[in-house]
Design goal:
This protein is of the alpha+beta class. It has a single domain, classed as Nucleoside Triphosphate Pyrophosphohydrolase, CATH 3.90.79. About 20% of the residues lie in helices and about 35% in strands. The protein has four helices and eight strands, in the order αββββαββββαα. Strands 1, 2, 3, 4, 5, 6, 7 and 8 form an eight-stranded mixed β-sheet that branches. Strand 2 and strand 3 form a beta hairpin. Helix 3 runs antiparallel to helix 4. The longest helix has 13 residues.
Length: about 160
C-alpha cells in the first residue's frame, strides 16, 4: 500500500501554483525632461516588498485602459499629466494574492508626461518615489520585460 496525501491536501490548489489565465493590469510610465532635456522616469516602491516598480493597478470600471493607468499614477505617486492612448509596451509578473496564491498578471504600460506632482495624494507616505534616468530605472526594477520597456522607451 503506497503513501497518499490526505484528501484535504489533494483538493487544495498549491499556494505556489499560478492561476492559468493571466489577469490584466494597467500601468503608467511617468516621465519628464530634466534640466538638460533628457528624459527621466519616476519609479515607486511596492507597498509589500519595497521593490522598485511603476504605478499600476487593476482595470477601473468606466475608465479606459489609459485612464485607469493615469488614476493609479495619481493614487500611488501623486502625478498627473498627459497619458498616451497607445501603450508603450507590456510586461508580466506574478502577484501574490491575499490568500497566498500567485496570480500571473500581464501589465500594459502607458506613457504619462508629468505636468504636476502633488504633495498630498491617496498613498502618500506608503511608498518611496524617485526620478531616475531610463537606464538607471531599467537597472532598479526586477521584471525583465519591464527592464526592456524602460531601456527602450523613447518619448
Amino acid at each position: 500500500m503506497g503513501l497518499s496525501m490526505p484528501k484535504n491536501h489533494r483538493d487544495k490548489p498549491s499556494s505556489h501554483e499560478p492561476d492559468r489565465e493571466p489577469r490584466a493590469q494597467f500601468a503608467a510610465l511617468p516621465w519628464r525632461r530634466n534640466f538638460m532635456g533628457e528624459p527621466e522616469v519616476m519609479l515607486i516602491t511596492s507597498r509589500e516588498t519595497h521593490r522598485w516598480v511603476i504605478p499600476k493597478g487593476w482595470p477601473i470600471k468606466g475608465k479606459s485602459s489609459a485612464k485607469s493607468a493615469a488614476q493609479e499614477a495619481f493614487e500611488e505617486a501623486g502625478v498627473t499629466g498627459k497619458t498616451d492612448k497607445s501603450p508603450v509596451g507590456s510586461y508580466a509578473y506574478d502577484k501574490r494574492l491575499k490568500n497566498g496564491r500567485l496570480q500571473h498578471v500581464r501589465v500594459t504600460v502607458f506613457s504619462l508626461l508629468v505636468e504636476n506632482e502633488a504633495e498630498i495624494f491617496p498613498e502618500v507616505g506608503q511608498r518611496e518615489k524617485r526620478w531616475v534616468s531610463l537606464l538607471e530605472a531599467a537597472r532598479l526594477v526586477d521584471e525583465p520585460e519591464l527592464m526592456v520597456v524602460l531601456a527602450t522607451f523613447s518619448p
